[in-house]
Amino acid sequence: MKFTLPWLKEHLETDASLTEIVDQLTMIGLEVENVENASSLLKPFVIASVISAEKHPNADRLRVCMVDIGDGKPIQVVCGAPNARAGMKGVFSAPGTFIPGKNMTLAVGTIRGVESRGMLCSPAELMISDDHDGIIDLPADAPVGKSYVEWAGAGDPVIEINLTPNRPDCTGVAGIARDLGATSIGTYKNKIPKPVKGAFPCPVKVTLDFGKTPSLCPAFGLRLVRGVKNGPSPDWLQKRLTAIGLRPINTLVDITNFVTFDRGRPLHVFDAAKVHGNLTVRRAKNGEKLLALDGRTYTLDEGMCVIADENGVESLAGTMGGEATGCSESTTDVLIESALWDELNIAQTGRKLGINSDARYRFERGVDPAFMVPGLELATQMVLDLCGGQASEFVVAGDPTPKEKVIDFPLSELPRLAGLKMPLSDIRRLLEKLGFFAAGQGERMKVAVPSWRPDVHGRADIVEEIVRIVGVDRVPSTPFAREHARKPVLTVMQNRTRKARRALAARGLVEAVTWSFISKQEAELFGGGKPELSLANPIAAELSDMRPSLLPGLIMASQRNADRGHVDVKLFEVGQIFKGDGPEDQLTAASGLRRALAKPSGSGRHWSDKTGPVDAFDAKADAFAVLSAAGSPMQALQVVPGGPSWFHPGRSGTIQIGPQNILGHFGELHPRAVAALRAEGPIVGFEVILERIPEPKARATRAKALLELSPFQPVERDFAFVMDSAVKAADIVRAAQNVDKKLISDVVVFDVYEGKGIEPGKKSIAIAVTIQPREKTMTDAEIEALSAKVVAEVTKRTGGVLRA
User: Which residues, 6+ apart, have CB-to-CB distance to 686 below 8 Å?
Assistant: First the structure.
């Protein structure tokens, strides 16, 4: 919502400065988003007279103009505007002037061989309107040499507020002034439109015809004005509109735009000569079309409300008028419409058709029903004053009377909800300045809500009104009194998601956000492609299916980076994947990949780096980092060889807690999968399903467990076992850990050997077992006894024998 400072002061009597007004607006909840002050920006532009305008010797559409800026020294300017002519007055900018509409600083130039030492400017180049068809054509009495911005009054500050949807009363300048008038910054001028006496009955009747369906138009007011003279609106009205970015059209249309922004009351005007018969407000018929004022033809349906005459639809109710009945300079009789519309229907219609008009902006929020008729009176008076003519009596279909809303308000609510204490007289005076009617004595009062405040429903809303006007800074700071510990705000999955992101970012991976859709071929390659996951109306052929995995998007993203020179890519994503169309089939995955030389120790080539390209163990480390951060029981994890078909069968693994709970996979991506995505390897990656991590047992407190550090020296013993090649290293580790979980703190595989000295079909696996005493220092005999148990348990579980 934009308005100028002088416009505001027409409704608010105040001596406050611009800064004070802006600060006060923000304090009362009308947050100021921007303040434009064009006076300094447009100060270098001066009024000039065109002495001559001769045809350019080398261009048919250019003219060489001699321009006088009041110092008696003509300046040569090359101009391409079609309206440039001798004797006119325009706006001149000298070399060195910044042109805001073109975001450039003007310099002396040569155009088709002729020097140009300045510019005659269009309204668009000065950003006072969108008109760029010609240069500014000023009246004959415009003073040559005077600053244009001072003469035109175009330097008024323009204030833009970020209006929240619950404040329809502030879609007009008068409503904003009313709010400010409730503070100490000024006094609100309540300008009530005077009734205009009709000279004759309105010949056009209005019917609300919605049949058995709910009405979409509570009330509709109409009035005819005969004998008007339409044309350009007066300067004050044009300046008022152009200052806030509106393009003046003609007096009748400009009046409706003015009332829309001045009072928040959208109106519409019909050329009465183009309306055939009476008007009917009804639902549109499926397939009906309307050529609107924006030049576009819209196809309507029965969910939309229209205004129609005997020939068909003339206007899209509350959204946009029709071209066929629009007013032009030849209009002599005009029908002025002021109506109420169903807010939800206006929003739905505008969204369906993609129309964002000033009328829709206000009607979908809710306009003041009590101002429907006064708004019609105000517009009628302006038409009579600016266009002449004779007005008819107005007709009203429906009932615009607003429903009365009275709230029982105990004064104790103010200290209870806001911690403020105010006497009854101050509360009543404040509410009455806002338009409320307050009555009552003692500790309770009755508050009648004004018709322009549909957002006020209960006691808390009354408290909010008082607090925002008095000032949020008056609310005392009070600590929360908690009898019980605060409950967690985030869910388990929200916590896991955040921790997974942090863990992967800490390992040097860069977060990516890829499409949730991939092509059908890609989905089938990664275990998807089910019919129920295909989109009915995809935005592109390559985005036809819901993704079954995050890896395809990451692989393609890594290749796009590689194509642009970033070869050593390491990416991760935490997002949704889809295994079916049921709620249980939507899972949260944490996935990542590394490409080329993007090792955890560092990316790229270096003479001291002997590690080589990424491998499956890098992906495994990333996956385990995610699982650890997300709270997975690390001691219970099992890694088995192999994975899904999109992983290399000999260089991948599956992470599980027993065969029934598979947490994820890691390894080198299969060359076939990489090639199908038009990417190049080597690429390793992982994918972990966060929902499948077992939830930890509930604890009595949210505090971290006590840190237990043993004061005794740990002891490490190495064992090498010879066993069948098919035995998994994880089975050996698990067997050793299960010997004594209290004393054995860690088991690590540090060597695997096959070859000379080992029988064919056998292998040697060496493990390091860390023994951590906790109660006393262990004797050699106790250590040897525990070591013997380790050997016996590994032999029993795996068939391996201690290597000599």
Answer: 591, 592, 593, 619, 620, 622, 623, 626, 664, 665, 666, 667
Beta bridge partners of 138: 89
pLDDT tens per residue across span 572-590:
999 999 999 999 999 999 9
Q: Which of 668, 590, 675 is nearest to 625 (CA)?
A: 590
Please report which helix (H) or strand (E) contains residue 158, including its range: strand 158-161
| In 405-458, alpha helices (H) | 413-418, 424-433
Give the C-alpha separation, 340 to 228, whole Å.
26
Q: Cite the beta strand spans of 629-743 per DSSP E.
A: 638-641, 647-656, 662-669, 683-689, 715-724
Q: 3-class SS at 756?
A: coil
HSE-up of residue 273 (Cα within 13 Å, Cβ side): 10
Instruction: Say if CB 593 and CB 684 are below 8 A apart.
Output: yes
Residue 161: pLDDT band by 50, 70, 90 thresholds? very high
List pLDDT tens digits, range 771-800. Answer: 999 889 999 999 999 999 999 999 999 999
At 607 the pLDDT is 72
Q: For residues 538 and 517, what is the distance between their CA atoms, to the nearest angstrom?
A: 9
Whether the predicted model's global pTM rises above the 0.85 cut: no
When pLDDT is averaged across residues 153-180 and rounded to a whole number, the result is: 89
Report how far residue 621's alpha carbon sits from residue 507's, in angstroms, rounded to the nearest whole number.
Answer: 10
Angle of helix 424-433 relative to helix 459-470, nearest 10 degrees, comes to 90
Half-sphere exposure (Cβ direction) of 133: Cα atoms closer than 13 Å: 1
701 pLDDT band, cuts 50/70/90, is low
Question: How high is the pLDDT of residue 804?
Answer: 75
The terminus-to-terminus CA distance of the chain in angstroms comes to 87
Residue 155 near residue 5, CB atoms below 8 Å: no
> What pLDDT sits at residue 150?
78
Residue 426, classified by CB atoms within 10 Å of its CB into exposed (0-12), middle (13-18) or buried (19+), is exposed
Q: Is 27 left (phi over 0), alpha (psi -120 to 50) or beta?
A: alpha
* Cα–Cα distance, 602 to 604 (Å, whole number): 7
Identify the burial level of 627 via C-beta atoms within 10 angstroms of its C-beta, where 0-12 means exposed, 13-18 middle and 19 or more buried. Answer: buried
- In 205-346 the beta strands, taken as DSSP E runs, fall at 206-209, 219-226, 268-271, 279-283, 289-291, 297-299, 305-309, 312-316, 320-321, 334-340
Phi first, then psi: give them for residue 694, nearest 5 degrees.
Answer: -60, 140
Task: With CA atoms as reference, report the closest residue to 492 among 661, 663, 694, 628.
Answer: 694
Strand locations in 365-498 (E) = 390-391, 395-398, 406-410, 437-439, 444-448
Residue 389 corresponds to which amino acid?
G
Weakest-pLDDT range from 155-164, 251-260, 677-686: 155-164
Cα angle 480-485-487, degrees, rounded to a multiple of 5: 95
Residue 448 sits at the vertex; the CA angle it makes with 443 and 450, to the nearest 5 degrees, is 145
Whether residue 483 is predicted with pLDDT greater than 60 in this model: the reply is no
Q: How big is the chain, counted in residues?
A: 804
Task: Classify residue 485 by its DSSP letter.
Answer: P
Residues 448, 405 contacting (CB under 8 angstroms): yes
Q: Answer with the residue of higher pLDDT: 616 or 610.
A: 616
pLDDT of residue 486 exceeding 70: no
Strand partners, 668: 684
Helix (H, G, I), strand (E, B) or coil at 498: helix
pLDDT at 243: 80
Report pLDDT for 158.
87
Residue 323: count of CB within 10 angstroms of its CB: 16
Scanning 116-172, the segments in alpha helix (DSSP H) are 148-152
Which distant-in-sequence residues (6+ apart) come within 8 Å of 600 by Cβ? 507, 508, 618, 621, 622
448 falls in which pLDDT band (50, 70, 90)? Answer: very high
Query: How many angstroms separate the CA atoms of 200 and 223, rounded?
Result: 10
